[in-house]
Amino acid sequence: MISDLQRVIDQVAREKGVDQEILIDTLEEAVRTAARKKFGPEYDLEVNYNGDQGEIEAFEFKEVVEEVTNKNLQISVEEAREIDPESEIGDSLGVKMDTEAFGRIAAQSAKQVIMQRLKEAERNMVYDDFKDRRGEILNGIVQRFDRGAIIVNVGKSDAELPHKEQIPRESYRQGDRIRAYILEVRQISRGPQIILSRTHPNFLAALFENEVPEISEGIVQIMQVAREPGARAKIAVSSRDSDVDPVGACVGMKGRRVQAVVQELRGEKIDIVTWHPDAAKFICNALAPAEITRVIVDEENRSMEVVVPDDQLSLAIGKRGQNVRLASKLTGWRLDVVGETDYNEALKDGYRSLLDLHGIGEKRATELYEADFKSAGDVAGANVEELLSVKGMSELRAEELIREATRYTDEHARAETLSKEKEEDEQRESEEIPSGDQMSETGDENTPRDEETGTDSAEDTPSGDLIDQVGDETGDEDLSGTETSGAREDEKLQAQDEPATE
Fold first, then answer.
1. Residues above pLDDT 90, as percent of the chain
2. Can you tell me the distance from the alpha carbon of 290 to that of 426, in angstroms, rounded to the nearest whole number?
3. Per-residue confidence (pLDDT) for residue 477, from 0 to 100
4. Which of 187, 300, 329, 495 is 20 to 30 A off residue 479, Cα-Cα?
5. 259 lies in some domain
6. pLDDT computed for residue 71 by the predictor
């Protein structure tokens, strides 16, 4: 063994970042393994590190007996007193072993143990370093690509950015610098596995926290984040200080703060909205810049019907429904955005359905409408206790009204189903019948062509002139023949009456 072992331990501990106690335990285990490899498992061995001398000491312990039955574990009194004159029967005598006599194979085993323990120590150290860093932003360098995933070098270890955690249409090359969110840290057999993400909503929140001092100081809070990575995002913020505008703080002077986040996300559009404890007002902020006319809240189903001006409908819904979809994710409410015209028409239809119920006049329909029963469907879905809140409503009348509304809605549902089926049948029939152009094209294809003139052959398809000619030879000929015979009879009679002349 090398004499300056302590210096080597200090150097390895410094370079690898491993605790010296772990290295010493590893060396002791390696020497113990080498000794058992050399002498076998029956020996009673003890290995210790001597810090004063800077070496690993191995001792072989044997029991002092009168008659030796197992020379590997026992020693006679005479031999024991040669080593230690004070030895007595029953004592355990330790004899220092020469570690250099372990041999080459034992040394190789010790080396393997040391390398394995060092790797395990490094893995545990990496896991301990990253397990408490979940939720942080990590800077790294793209090292390689593995089946769609990006392997990122983060210093002491490699991290993985899976394909599903990458922003769509975002590409990297080997050696590029990359920033990502530490999503998860796992301890597996191969070592710690660090999973990164660039699509997680918290990645956007962490970027704003790095760019906006008010957020890191706790003055401005990020309440909710909704993202469609690579396209658009909405972030709701609030302020604990009435003098600090949360939206203005996140935007920054001339938009520098938000632009820094947008550039990191490769142009992803970000809407910063003000959070409000009132859900209806929060919805109005989330759907900005669209103007909101009215919000109808359904607490039981956690849904809202949002009414907007007709010219603002497309703005509120957004391209392919993106704006209302993100607003729904941000607020946690299911949203139904309608235009004013459609909403007013729906209200009129609902009121008319109340009037269509048997025994309901305008007065009763108005009372139901004012009690938030907007249509016959609302009445059918209500119970007797809810209808009793209507002025002048009795329990018996409420039951009758519910039955009548249920019958009315069922009939209308069946009628709508039949109408829809009829439209589908008509559409299928129109698709099966060929159009006039298709029929003319089919006739032209089947009609033989005259090779010399390029016209249709008269043998198969008679032309218009030939049809006229046939008509002249049939019907017209009979008529002309009748007229001619009549003229000839007149001429004969006239010849008989006139005298003959020479």
1. 29
2. 40
3. 38
4. 495
5. yes
6. 74
Burial letters 380-390, b for 16+ CB under 10 A, else e: bebeeebbeeb
101-152 pLDDT per residue, tens: 665 665 666 667 667 777 777 777 788 778 888 888 999 999 999 888 999 9
Residues 325-347: b if buried by 16+ CB within 10 A, e if exposed: bbbbbbbebebebbbbeebeeee
For residue 61, being part of any structural domain is answered with: yes
Clarify whether residues 103 and 141 are in a common domain.
no
Q: Give tens-digit pLDDT for 294-330.
A: 898 888 888 998 999 989 899 999 888 999 999 999 9
Q: In the listed set 245, 275, 305, which residue is the last one of a domain according to the structure?
A: 275
pLDDT for 247 equals 94
For the chain, how many structural domains are there in total? Answer: 4
Q: Is 9 part of any domain?
A: yes
The pLDDT of residue 489: 43
- Do 321 and 232 touch, CB atoms closer than 8 A? no
C-alpha distance from residue 485 to each of 472, 477, 479, 493 (Å)? 18, 12, 10, 13
Domain that holds residue 221: 201-275
The neighbouring-strand residues paired with 150 are: 145, 161
Measured between alpha carbons, how far is 241 from 139 in angstroms, rounded to an integer? 33
Residue 167 near residue 229, CB atoms below 8 Å: yes
Q: Rounded distance, CA 502 to CA 114, Å? A: 160
Asked whether residue 181 falls in the same domain as residue 245, the answer is no
d(CA 236, CA 218): 15
Pairwise CA distance, residues 234 & 162, whole Å: 24
**Same domain (yes/no): 44, 90:** yes
Q: Is 91 left (phi over 0), alpha (psi -120 to 50) or beta?
A: beta
**Do 104 and 69 share a structural domain?**
yes
pLDDT at 426: 80
Q: Are both 189 and 217 inside the same structural domain?
A: no
Question: Is the C-alpha dihedral spanning 119, 121, 124, 130 positive or negative?
Answer: negative
Q: Which residues contact 269 (CB under 8 A, 6 or more apart)?
A: 231, 232, 233, 262
Q: At 208, list the tokens.
A: 């704003």
Same domain, 17 and 46: yes
CA 35 to chain centre: 57
114, 25: one domain:
yes
Q: Which two tokens stand for residue 156?
A: 């002491």
Give the range among 213-222, 326-335, 419-428 with minimum mean pLDDT.
419-428
- We report the CATH number of the domain holding residue 187 as 2.40.50.140
**Per the domain annotation, does 309 fall within a domain?**
no
Q: Among the three residues 176, 197, 218, which one is the final residue of a domain in this structure?
A: 197
> Are 33 and 108 found together in one domain?
yes
Cα–Cα dist 45/37, whole Å: 12
